[in-house]
Request: fold
Amino acid sequence: MLTRRHFVITSAAMFSAPIATPVWAQDTTPTPTPAAAPAPTKTKRRPVSDSSRWAAYDAQVTPANYDPSTSNPWGLHPRFLPKLVQANSGLKPGDIHVDAVARYLYHIRDNGTAMRYGVAIARGNLYEPGNYTIRRKAKWPTWIPTKEMVARDPKVYGPLEDGMDGGPRNPLGSRAFYLFQGNRDTYLRIHGSPAPRSIGGRASSGCVRMVMAHIIGLYDQVETGVTAHLYPAESITARS
Reply:
């Protein structure tokens, strides 16, 4: 956390010499030394998301005449565009499944189908497979890097450790699903990204990334309380 030191410099007042006073008339009570004024405390500003601008932000990141299955100003491989597919049997409607090898996210529907989206996953060993509960979701969320992120890459995250307001340049993008295990926030997210060309690769610091326009379409279909299944990725060794 960036801190600033504030110093209060006090100066003694200058007075002219007083007229001599008889000893019997003098007040011999010691004059207390005034205490130094306390240093002002910096109030940390928390990042905010201005809901009055959400509609404008949505329009900014959604292509004109947007068709999820064909619009591709980002230059993605066509397989990463949203597509309705047949779901495997036995999967619970509403849940999310992330195939980290193929870089797909599936949202299971109640008619045996699923919407499939392209995603990016975490780089290196930062990807954490497992089963998570989506306990919260947010539009144009604010973002604060974790202490681990700042320690791992202080040049990148140090200047941002007080956080960023919600908006198109925010790393969490247009929407975010917050992944919990029990009551513990894992700080893992499924979220939109201002770097859509990263879709299909390993790019994040732990989260699952989506194209911002794609997750806007998914957002209202996902209820809190559902499970997000993040399956293991291929190892870096296997890819090399």
Notes: Residues 143 and 164 are 5 Å apart (CA to CA). The two ends are 37 Å apart (CA to CA). Confidence is low (pLDDT under 50) at residues 1-30, 236-240. The first helix runs from residue 54 to 61.
